[in-house]
Amino acid sequence: MLLVLAAIGLGLAAGVARAEDFDAIVTRVSDGDSVRVRPLDGGPPRVLRLVGMDAPERCQAYGAQARAALARQVLWRPVRVQAGARDRYQRELARLGTPDIPDLNAWMVAQGHAWSYRLRDDPGPYARQEAQARQEGRGLWAQPSPQEPRVFRRAHGPCH
Q: pTM of this prediction?
């Protein structure tokens, strides 16, 4: 039994190790946490969901501002992509970096353009950046009571 568990653990570790790093050009910014890229080595375009953060929906308050902030940093610019698993919409979960901003996902949260992605009691990978943005009233935190995207989706459904 221990050998089986160890083998499963090694298999999971190997799956995580299969994450792919590549350079790309961002050709579309769909919203504050989704982009389309063209890998510089050729290959087909890829749809990415920025991991560890959750930006307002396009039709939600501050959604347009979050999308614009991301677009200003990456649209038609080269980025370094660290891609891993896929979400339920088959977008690759990825972290983006630029020469000026090595972790763009963290930057989006730190500037108040997104929440650190929470799962149950886990405050997410960018909880510190979110707390600082809240304290300083940056971005969406300048609003009286911003609504988390997952709460917004539950109440209003997806944007069309």
A: 0.86
